[in-house]
Amino acid sequence: MKVAVRYLAILSCVLAAGAALGADGVAFIANIKGEVTLDGAARPPLMSELSKGQKLALGKEAVVSVMYVVSGKEYVLKGPGDYIVNEAEVASTKGAAAALRQTAWRANQQVLVQVAQASSASIRMRSAAPSAPKVDQSVPRLLYPVDTTVIALQPTLSWNAGDAKAPFDVRLEQANGQGQPQVAKAGKAEYRAGAKLAAGTEYKWSVAASGKEIGSGSFRTLSKEAQARIDASKPQAKWEFSDWLMYAMLLKENGASQDAKEVWQRLAKERADLPEMAALAR
């Protein structure tokens, strides 16, 4: 609930600036390719809100996926063609009819609403933000997980060793000092937790080589409820771009920012035509 409130607060700030979801939105753009205009204006960005009565015009070979927030229904539009957004479906006024696609998000409307709102705000805010400075890859440091929530109870910890040589001394323990610490030697710059971690718990970990610390950090595991929600939405072999986008946003909404970023980076490579994905992958 706190996560949802935090994102709604962010969304309110964006709304105040006139750059996010409106109160009358019924759907949003979950995928877009090619020449597309909205109400005769410029091409709308990914995750744009769509209100009842708005019109989409698609050029030859263009594709748009429209996902409805209340039902989770996704309509795939293919150009050339003209379409109108109705309250519960997309209708064709010229060209092929919109195709209804079964999605993994239809079963949980609450998750869909929260993720859709967070997605729109996040994309716009990241697109407006300056690029993060490049990190010197030769500097020894922890890579994953750092200041994030993890979606696996046996995560694989990784680090940049720099000039340090194996073996690496790894220590993983609950931040409150309870439980038995995991102490191990790793022959390469990664270590998979030797036992399942406790749900909803803060952990700290450190890595050293030849008595010199490479880095120390902390992370958190998902609560049992969030873990069940994430597990129920695990990627399937035939998932489409829009499914992966929503899944990554679900991870982000649950605090798993590094896991979400990994998905966004892969999507950004696959869809170089979408600057919004590049912004999220930063």
Description:
There is one protein chain. This protein has 282 residues and is α+β, with helices and mostly antiparallel strands. The protein folds into three domains: 2-128, no CATH class; 152-221, Immunoglobulins (Immunoglobulin-like, Sandwich); 236-281. It is 28% helix and 31% strand. The strands form four sheets. It has a five-stranded antiparallel β-sheet with strand order 3-1-5-6-9. Strands 11-17-16-13-14 form a five-stranded mixed β-sheet, with helices on one face. A four-stranded antiparallel β-sheet has the order 2-4-7-8, with no helix packed on it. A hairpin with a 4-residue loop joins β7 (81-85) and β8 (90-95). α2 (109-128) packs across α4. The chain is elongated, with a radius of gyration of 22 Å. Residues 1-23 have low confidence and may be disordered.
Comma- or semicolon-separated keywords:
282 residues; Immunoglobulin-like; five-stranded mixed β-sheet; 31% strand; disordered N terminus
